TrEMBL record:
Belongs to the FPP/GGPP synthase family. It comes from the Bacteria. This is Polyprenyl synthetase family protein. The keyword Magnesium applies. It comes from Streptomyces beihaiensis. Gene3D superfamilies: Farnesyl Diphosphate Synthase. SUPFAM superfamilies: Terpenoid synthases (SSF48576). Pfam families: polyprenyl_synt. InterPro entries: Isoprenoid_synthase_dom_sf, Polyprenyl_synt, Polyprenyl_synt_CS.
Length: 364
């Protein structure tokens, strides 16, 4: 992972775990109430996805994810001078959109595990994964618009724009898997859409609901967008070299799915024997591709662990791992610079910085 960044003054005193837990605690009761609006069996399927029940329908205390987005949403309300609670509808709306994307992504990618247990499509079938994902997206807009305020309308517009960008990014991600070459610029654009857009929205939506003007909201969006790029760069590192015990995914996860993630495209863009050998191997891999992508059929299922390890070693030798770690730090720096134009209490600024620190040094 990238080296620990030098935090802004006061950030080292922030308890990030408590900050994340605050966002989760404020958002979860509202999130559960909103999910309860869904017709059966979608309410149960959604509850399973969120980790509130197990596959048999029994209450569970599952891993609900890192809760970075809810934490950012309620913190952004405070950046606008409002109470943290003013950001809760935004936190819930963003979390609903995020989980809509996870349900669909798991199905499209054929991922059988998320957060150390079977994914929704694996347990309840592809149809339910699609329907529940669609329902969560609809609920996200409902949560905001039912507030009936001008600020809610502004927030809903930002959320809708971010969602469209997220979907664009997912479409780009899938199309890149079947191309031999993807440029670093194309990869960054895709990751900015797929991850940066929703984190940008999370970082500003609470401020909008709290009455912030567009200048303030736009600056917070820039923070979130570049934080999202840092987040995704770290995710790309974890997708190849992450510990399965920590990530909850298979070893060499992104290589198994032939993802053109940042370490891969950076390695391919480099010069040298390792980059050339990697390009030859990936070109040969592409010839084994199948015409139809299905959740039950992986393209590279016959590969041994040693073959994936060899590809990971070539990516590292060509410099892809180091370049991605440096890019995570660069995007982190840009994110913090965006906060400079936003007047806010020192304690709130320190919390934004601490969340950025957390994003670039996490292990899952």
């Amino acid at each position: 992972m990238p080296p620990v960044p030098s935090a802004a003054e006061g950030a080292e005193a922030v308890d990030v775990t408590a900050l994340l837990e605050r966002g989760r605690t404020l958002a979860t009761p509202v999130l559960k109430a909103v999910v309860d609006r869904l017709a059966p069996p979608m309410d149960t399927v959604a509850a399973y996805h969120f980790g509130w029940i197990d596959a048999a329908g029994n209450p569970a205390d599952g891993d609900g994810g890192k809760a970075v987005r809810p934490a950012l949403a309620v913190l952004s309300a405070q950046a606008a001078g409002a109470a943290a609670e003013a950001g809760v509808p935004g936190a819930v709306a963003v979390e609903l959109v995020h989980n809509f994307s996870l349900l669909h992504d798991d199905l499209m990618d054929g991922d059988e595990q998320r957060r150390h247990r079977d994914t929704v499509w694996k347990v309840h079938g592809p149809a339910q994964a699609i329907l529940v994902g669609d329902a969560l997206f609809a609920l996200a807009n409902e949560v905001l618009l039912e507030l009936g305020t001008a600020e809610a309308g502004r927030a809903a517009r930002r959320l809708t724009t971010a969602t469209r960008a997220l979907i664009d990014g997912q479409a780009q991600d899938i199309s890149y898997e079947h191309r031999e070459r993807v440029s670093v610029e194309e990869c960054l654009e895709m990751e900015g859409n797929k991850t940066g857009a929703l984190l940008a929205c999370a970082s500003s939506i609470g401020a909008v609901l709290g009455g912030a003007d567009d200048t303030t909201a736009d600056a917070l969006e820039r923070y979130g967008y570049h934080l999202g790029l840092a987040f995704q760069a770290v995710d790309d590192l974890l997708g190849i070299w992450g510990d399965p015990e920590a990530t909850g995914k298979q070893t060499w996860s992104d290589l198994r799915q032939r993802k053109k993630s940042l370490p891969v495209v950076a390695a391919l863009a480099a010069k040298g024997a390792a980059a050339e050998q990697l390009a030859e191997l990936l070109a040969a891999d592409a010839k084994t591709d199948v015409d139809e992508r299905t959740p039950s059929a992986g393209d590279l299922d016959t590969f041994s662990e040693a073959e994936f390890a060899a590809r990971a070693a070539l990516i590292e030798e060509a410099g892809g791992r180091e370049w991605t770690a440096q890019e995570a730090r660069r995007q982190y720096d840009i994110a913090l610079e965006a906060l400079d134009s936003v007047p806010m209490p020192a304690a709130v600024r320190a919390q934004f910085t601490a969340l950025a620190d957390f994003v670039v040094v996490r292990k899952r």
